[in-house]
Amino acid sequence: MRCLTAFLLIALGLPVWADTTIPESQDEQADFLVKMQSAARELDYSGVYTYQQGTFISSSRIVHRVDGTGERERIEGLDGTPHELVRHNDEVQSLHPDHKLVIHEQRQGERFPALLQDEPGQVLEHYRIQFKSEPDRVAGRDCLVVVLIPLDQQRYGHILCVDVGSHLLLRAQTVAQQNDIIDQIAFVSLTVGEDAADDRVSPSWDTDKWDVDDVPMAAIDLDKKGWRIPTPPGFRIMTQVSRPLRADDFVNQMVLTDGLASISVFVEPFDDRRHTLSAQGGVHKGSLNIFRRRVSEYWLTVLGQVPGDTLRDLAERVEYVPLAH
């Protein structure tokens, strides 16, 4: 019956996916986002995707498989110095053959084609979803265009292209208020299903004799350490950790999210060998904004894919109240 339907659609000059139901209610829209996120976590797929920000373009090859032990993934950088990221569930290894080095740490946040940082209900509190009726194609696959329109000026908008057959995210574009695309990431080739299951998810190099740098992380509460960090409207605290920065140094990190965008707040001891007051202020790079300032005897760095005003307001309102001894 589906084949007959597809034949009739083609004969009538309509897109093959025209019988796809467009989610209308908020529950249906949330279910759509769940399916999109689940596809990134539960399907076998392999392909090449590119990331573009202004004139900068980089390419990566990804292989993602699911077996009895969970998720396995290998991401190979195709530009610049050879490097790979190999993941098994939440265990991540960054491989650097030039230095014969493996950096081992716990997974932090989601990577393309996964997108959501939290439950879809949180996303729908801060974005209005619009499904376009016009079809699009990415990497040779039909996709449904989904526009996430921010309900305030605290966050950017997003235009997604989601594979009709698998619900896998094929392209994600970040847009400013004028609908200018400020960065995008998209597959240029993609295989989904059994044909991708044979692709290697193990490292490309024999790392048995390489140095291994374990990055330990400890859960902390920055509020109890004297930090008053305001969360922008719609953002909540996702994680707070401390990790070593150098032999005798550390950095504390708080991650905030609105379910889609994320902001990282880094706090480390001020060191005049590495930090200068002239470096204070904001830096803009595509959708990523960075703001730095000295707070008491500490150096504060706030970064995230949110508008510069959102980040600047957060950073300038951070306070440190030394604890009484």
State the name of the first-level CATH class of the largest domain: Mainly Beta
Low-confidence stretches: 1-19
Please, what is the average pLDDT?
88
The whole-angstrom Rg is: 22 Å
By CATH, the topology of the largest domain is outer membrane lipoprotein receptor (LolB), chain A
Count of all domains:
2
What is the overall number of helices? 4
Shape: globular
Termini separation: 75 Å
Name the CATH homologous superfamily of the largest domain: Lipoprotein localisation LolA/LolB/LppX
What sequence of helices (H) and strands (E) makes up the elements?
HHEEEEEEHEEEEEEEEEEEEEEEHE
Largest sheet entry: 13 strands, mixed
Query: What is the CATH architecture annotation of the largest domain?
Result: Clam
- How much helix is in the residues? 10-25%
Strand content: over 45%
Structural class: mainly beta
Number of strands: 22
Please give a quick description of this structure.
With 325 residues, the chain is mainly β. The chain contains four helices and 22 strands. The longest helix has 17 residues.
Description:
It is built from 4 helices and 22 strands. It has helices spanning 2-11, 26-42, 120-126, 308-317; strands at residues 45-53, 56-67, 70-77, 84-88, 91-96, 101-106, 127-131, 136-138, 141-150, 157-163, 169-175, 181-192, 211-214, 218-219, 227-228, 236-246, 249-257, 262-269, 281-285, 288-295, 298-304, 319-320. The strands form 3 sheets. Strands 1, 2, 3, 4, 5, 6, 7, 8, 9, 10, 11, 12 and 13 form a 13-stranded mixed sheet that branches. It has a 7-stranded antiparallel sheet with strand order 14-16-17-18-21-20-19, covered by helices on one side. The chain has a two-stranded antiparallel ribbon with strand order 15-22. A hairpin with a 5-residue loop joins strand 10 (157-163) and strand 11 (169-175). The longest helix is centred in the first third of the chain and has 17 residues, at 26-42. The radius of gyration is 22 Å and the shape is globular. Mean pLDDT is 88; it is low at 1-19.
